[in-house]
Structure prediction request, 199 residues.
Amino acid sequence: MKAPRLNFVAPLLVCVAMLAACAAPKINTRSQTDPSANLASYKTYAFVAEPGTNRGGYSTPITGYFKSAISRELNARGYTLSESSPDLLINFNTNARENVDVRSRPTTTMGVGYGYGYYGYRGGLYAAGPINYGTEVETVRYKTGTANIDVVDAAKKQLVWEGIAEGKITNKMMENPQATIDTVIADMFANYPVKAGGQ
Prediction:
């Protein structure tokens, strides 16, 4: 009797896990290129002395993660890191902000209080009668982040390529920022005019 039930529950759990993975927030990336710039003509790069992720004149772990991931992408495209007279200067920045969504729903039905929102304490033990509670308001707080990478012609002091990423920041991302930054920067550089391998 128990075995058939397990056979039913296991596929259900797999479906739920797949749906949760599909619903995971995605970081959206895009880029802009100066149409007059030939990015394949540049050979060397260096990071600006004070990238946007530095705080109060000191480097942060985030700065190190950005430098590592950006170097990986640029090196794969045939560029070489050179602190003396580089062709390109690389700058980057990131910012997180808190968002607040206020959602409301009517609470005038017989089934109000079945484990949702404020009335969750009822836990499905009983339902309210046909009492007009008006509207229940729920406040949802979440963080969204923005990251930018600027690729600058060092001689002209002109932005030639910009990568931009925006999206919702989850707890999982906050717990492992290096992996998140690696993934986001790889996605940004997928739009870079010079492909990995220098082609």
In short: Residues 2-23 form the longest helix (22 residues). The radius of gyration is 25 Å. DSSP finds four helices and six strands in the chain. The mean pLDDT is 75.
